[in-house]
UniProtKB/TrEMBL annotation:
Domain Amino acid permease/ SLC12A, chain residue ranges per copy: 144-612
Phylogenetic placement of the source organism: Eukaryota, Viridiplantae, Streptophyta, Embryophyta, Tracheophyta
Keywords annotated in UniProt: Glycoprotein, Ion transport, Membrane, Potassium, Potassium transport, Symport, Transmembrane, Transmembrane helix, Transport
Chief location category: membrane
Protein name: Cation-chloride cotransporter 1
Superkingdom in the source lineage: Eukaryota
PANTHER family per record: CATION-CHLORIDE COTRANSPORTER 1, SOLUTE CARRIER FAMILY 12, CATION COTRANSPORTERS
Membrane topology reported for the UniProt record: Multi-pass membrane protein
Signal sequence extent: none
Region called Disordered, residue ranges: 1-22, 36-55, 67-86
């Protein structure tokens, strides 16, 4: 086939095809040099003499014949002694591309190799021996995970809200509240530990874990929500620090303070709260200052972190010391000291209505209950992801993340439980509800210590949020899933400056809002959504238990992860069903956006493993029995090997994919596109892989659901015979072979096509595969070309209803939805016509198919029989075919007489009945004439495929077929197989 034979050539696809990009191959003369060291056990020393005790060898990777003699013998570095003994280290047994050489010896020399990642479209797969550029500063468990988690958890809620929560909920329900929220984060920490220890972990923290477990769509959507939660949490901490500062130093306020009148309490003085404008101005300034610290990088943050944490721990010490001394000092009215009476009075809850400042007020707009307190308190236990957010900066993620995260979670939970008893026994309920800074009131020796502790703890938490959120956003951008995030990409070892600026803008926007109670539910939903994603990821991976699931953290179980995920969902709805719906809708919109606009990426996520196991289970449940006609789906085996040549970089005829889509109802079903490379498998294996990737890319471009397979065989016949026997599994084997009719065999004088074509059809018959041969494929309409002619079926032999089913599938496509079906039944005698028509009408009615039935009678073999004379074109084609067959038969007989052998054709003896050949020609002529008479204007014609006659040369069969399809523009030649594909019953 010449290039001009294909009218639907896809120029856009040709421009997109990667030109000449191949996998990097390891060749015999590869210059890769691997170093293997054997280090003496014993104390290390920095002296040069002891360093020389370590012997090094250099091994050139290559075949023995091509290796340099010096390299084969091994060489010592110049500073090693000349007489030092050493062993040769050769791995010729494994070949020059042994993975032992490429990967194993790398780790012995402490070479840093790139973490494995899944290639995306257009990427090359290479094994590099270079050292990754990374940040030289790596953090341990304490400074990398425990301190950031502790700073995030011990924040503003503890200092200025927790005593109020104890007063509102009472000691009993406060303990339940802490245990409930603490259990959720503890179970999430266990799930996080299991996933984080299941292999090397790159930057991105929980996003990286969720994405690799649940897929890029889920990972990006939840990761972006978690990023927003961290950014908004930074604003929460900044506002808390500013509010505390303005209460400690009222003179610093620029605007007049807001005075809240106290109703229903015994507190004699009014409660003052800072002006919202002061909160906004100071909040913006503080956010900018923190951003400058974050711009300084990890080194600057680590230097500043202890300065924030140590005063916090000291302030906690002062609070507890002051509480123990309060019984004697009595610093304020309502402070009873640690009293059993206060403990009993504060045991039960006392939910009240408050104003916006949280002060009890019968006319207030805020009514509190346990559910509302969950939403207020839960941000106090968040922050367990602060360490994993900085995973790219950790020395050992598999050790630091589990130990640091769980230690911080247990430490803070224990502190909260102790504080519940402490505050409940320390003051009256009125004092707990009205003194928002009770911790400062009771602090020893003076309140300023607690003010400093509050400010530094909140600033430290804000610093951790502004550090983790940009790195999370940069990690999402570096995965190159969403093109819109490309602005936030950073190179390895660089700081995410643009992402930090973007996070700062979000934080400043939330600071301008200025109301903590409006911000906390939003943060809670985003954090809970992330925690649920982590738990679901561990649940899925643990339940599937794939061979790659081997976490170092052994204390986990899928039931714990499921319980953790359930707690997250329950807490979300307990807090606010409206916020829950909004957050889930936002995550769903992000998921949909990523699935539409995102780039394809295969991360080996758990869903792929689930699909695999589901497919295996479904395959086993289908068994090896025949599928019921009600459940029958066409699984086309599309034979892409053209009869001739295709344009460069086009692996399949452009219209074959369009036709394969026409055989599916609403796109359901699978197609297998196969092609054959002639030659030796050992020589063409790499070419086959490249061709398979090209064909798969082309199938995706044509939006046809299917898989690509390339087979290397000595010739087309043998290759197809192997395909038709082995392709598929169980009942998912292909059941229809689709190929193009070889219209060019005579024009191109391709003598091998007839034998190959007949072999393919015979192989399909023996393998019990249906056959659909498309004639006029170049003129086949695409999805935008609407057809208004009829779909004509020449139903000559029983085929299990395949031809009828194909016509119905064509009607489901936009191209043919305006067409109508006509069924032509071929009867030999007039007496059979009426009965046959009635039977076919009843059959179509029971099958719920609307079609007009027409019976055509063929009374005799005579070409001049009743029914009309053939056209001049048909007669000319008939005469030409008969003459060519006669000439071919004469040549066969002369060759047999010359060689003294029987008649031979296609390499095997044949027996030719000349009278039977004439009958075949007459029958084919009559059928062709009937098609041209009734269906010249049809959109598409379907006709039964005659089987190749036994002992007839393949050349004869091609002449019969050519005569059958003569002058028919668009024709499907169909042969069913020994089973029904349609059923009358419901």
């Amino acid at each position: 086939m010449d290039n001009e034979d294909i009218e639907g050539r896809d120029e856009e696809f040709l421009s997109r095809m990667p030109g000449g990009r191949k996998y990097r191959q390891v060749v015999a003369n590869d210059q890769t040099v691997l170093e293997m060291s054997t280090i003496d056990p014993g104390p290390s020393s920095s002296s040069s003499s002891e360093i020389h005790q370590t012997s090094f060898k250099k091994i050139k990777v290559g075949r023995q014949a091509n290796m340099d003699p010096d390299a084969r013998e091994g060489s010592m570095p110049p500073n090693a002694g000349a007489n030092r003994p050493h062993r040769e280290s050769k791995l010729e047994l494994f070949g020059f591309d042994s993975l032992v050489n490429i990967l194993g010896l790398k780790s012995m020399t402490e070479e840093q190799i790139a973490a494995p990642s899944s290639p995306r479209d257009g990427e090359d797969i290479t094994i590099t021996d270079g050292r990754l550029k990374g940040n030289d500063l790596k953090l341990g468990t304490m400074m990398g995970v425990f301190v950031p988690c502790l700073q995030n958890i011990m924040g503003i809620i503890y200092y200025i809200r927790f005593s109020w929560i104890v007063g509102m909920a009472g000691i009993g329900e406060s303990l339940l509240l802490v245990a409930f929220c603490g259990l959720c984060t503890f179970l999430t920490g266990i799930s996080l530990s299991a996933i984080a220890t299941n292999g090397a972990m790159k930057g991105g923290g929980p996003y990286y874990l969720i994405g690799r477990a649940l897929g890029p769509e889920v990972g990006v959507s939840i990761g972006l929500c978690f990023f927003l939660g961290n950014a908004v949490a930074g604003a929460l901490y900044v506002l808390g620090a500013v509010e505390t500062f303005l209460k400690a130093v009222p003179a610093a306020g620029i605007f007049r303070e807001t005075i809240t009148k106290v109703n229903g309490t015994v507190t004699p003085e009014p409660i003052q709260s800072p002006s919202s404008h002061d909160l906004q101005i100071y909040g913006i300034v503080v956010t900018i200052l923190l951003c400058f610290i974050v711009f300084g990088g990890v080194k600057m943050i680590n230097r500043v972190a202890p300065a924030f944490l140590i005063p916090v721990l000291f302030s906690l010490f002062c609070i507890f010391v002051g509480g123990f001394l309060a019984g004697t000092d009595k610093p304020s009215a309502g402070i009873t000291g640690l009293s059993i009476t206060s403990f009993k009075e504060n045991w039960s809850p006392d939910y009240q209505t408050t104003n916006n400042a949280g002060i009890p007020d019968p006319d207030g707009k805020s009514h509190w209950n346990f559910n509302a307190l969950v939403g207020l308190f839960f941000p106090a236990v968040t922050g367990i992801m602060a360490g994993s957010n900085r995973s790219a900066s950790l020395k050992d993620t598999q050790r630091s993340i589990p130990v640091g995260t769980l230690a911080a979670t247990l430490t803070t939970t224990a502190l909260y439980i102790i504080s519940v008893f402490f505050f409940g026994a320390l003051a009256t309920r009125e004092k707990l509800l009205t003194d928002r800074l009770l911790t400062a009131t009771v602090a020893w020796p003076f309140p300023a210590v607690v003010y400093i502790g509050i400010i530094l703890s909140t600033l430290g938490a804000a610093l951790q949020s502004l550090t983790g959120a940009p790195r999370l956003l940069a990690a999402i951008a570096n995965d190159d899933i969403l093109p819109i995030l490309n602005y936030f990409k950073v190179a390895d070892g660089n700081e995410p400056y643009i992402a930090t600026m973007f996070t700062s803008f979000i934080c400043i926007g939330c600071v301008i809002i200025g109301n903590l109670d409006l911000i906390t539910p939003t943060i809670t939903m985003f954090f809970l959504l992330c925690y649920a994603g982590v738990n679901l990821s561990c649940f899925l991976l643990d339940l599937l238990d794939a061979p790659s699931w081997r976490p170092r953290w052994k204390f986990h179980h899928w039931s714990l992860s499921l319980l953790g995920a359930s707690l997250c969902i329950v807490i979300m709805f307990l807090i606010s069903w409206s916020f829950t719906v909004v957050s889930l809708a936002l995550a769903s919109l992000m998921y949909y956006y990523v699935s539409i606009k995102g780039k394809a990426g295969d991360w080996g996520d758990g869903f792929k493993s689930a699909y695999f196991q589901l497919a295996l289970r479904s395959l086993r449940s289908l068994g090896a029995n025949q599928v019921h006609p009600k459940n029958w789906y066409p699984i086309p085996l599309v034979f892409c090997r053209p009869w001739g040549k295709l344009p460069e970089n086009v692996p399949c005829h452009p219209k074959l994919a369009d036709f394969a889509n026409c055989m599916k109802k609403k796109g359901r079903g699978m197609s297998i596109f196969v092609s054959i490379l002639d030659g030796d498998y050992h020589e063409l294996a790499e070419d086959a892989k490249t061709a398979c990737k090209q064909l798969s890319t082309y199938i995706d471009y044509k939006r046809c659901e299917g898989v690509a397979e390339i087979v290397v065989a000595p010739n087309m016949s043998e290759g197809f015979r192997g395909i038709v026997q082995t392709m598929g599994l169980g009942n998912l084997k292909p059941n229809i072979v689709v190929m193009r009719y070889p219209e060019i065999w005579r024009r191109e004088n391709l003598t091998e096509i007839p034998a190959t074509f007949v072999d393919i059809i015979n192989d399909c018959i023996i393998a019990n595969k249906a056959v659909v041969i498309v004639k006029g494929l170049d003129e086949w309409p695409n999805e935008y070309q609407r057809q208004y002619g009829t779909i004509d079926l020449y139903w000559i032999v029983r085929d299990g209803g395949l031809m009828l089913l194909l016509s119905q599938l064509l009607l489901t496509k936009e191209s043919f939805e305006s067409s109508k079906i006509q069924v032509f039944c071929i009867a030999e005698e007039d007496s059979d016509a009426e009965g046959l028509k009635a039977d076919v009408k009843k059959f179509l009615y029971d099958l719920r198919m609307q079609a007009e039935v027409i019976v055509v009678t063929m009374k005799s073999w005579d070409v001049q029989a009743e029914g009309g004379s053939p056209s001049d074109d048909s007669l000319e084609a008939f005469s030409g075919a008969r003459k060519r067959i006669a000439d071919y038969l004469v040549d066969m007989k002369e060759a047999a007489q010359r060689d003294g052998t029987p008649l031979m054709a296609d390499g095997k003896p044949v027996v030719v009945n000349e009278q039977q050949v004439e009958k075949f020609l007459y029958t084919t002529l009559k059928l062709n004439s009937t098609i041209l008479k009734y269906s010249r204007m049809a959109a598409v014609v379907l006709v039964s495929l005659p089987p190749p006659p036994v002992n007839h040369p393949s050349y004869f069969y091609m002449e019969y077929m050519d005569l059958l399809v003569e002058n028919v523009q668009r024709l499907l030649i169909v042969r069913g197989y020994r089973r029904e594909v349609v059923t009358l019953f419901t």
